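for the writeup, i need someone to sanity check this before i put it in the appendix. the sequnce is what the collaborator sent (i think, or maybe the updated version? ugh). structure was predicted straight from it, no edits. if anything looks off just tell me and ill rerun, i have time this weekend
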Amino acid sequence: MAARKQCWQDRNSEIFKNKGLPDEVSDFFFPRPSSDIVSLLFESGLVASKGEARRMIQQGGVKIEKEKITDVNQQVDLKTPVLVQCGKRKFMRIQHRA
């Protein structure tokens, strides 16, 4: 049991302290080929409301492909899959489904 707990702690240290990525990232297929970042976060389920999405962006808690997003009006192109991080622990790969 102690070895299992140590393994879990090591994995979480890699992900959260060393800014690594989790082993499994969920996928979300977005209905449009592009979207503004606020709608993208809300419709994918990463945040509970558009207001929460704006607040997360303004506080620097949203990254796309490891780049911090600071503009709440930014458009995101989903022709290729993008990795979105919202907060420290929420990761999702989002892409357009034709």
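The chain is about 35% helix and 30% strand. The longest strand covers residues 90-96.
thx in advance!!
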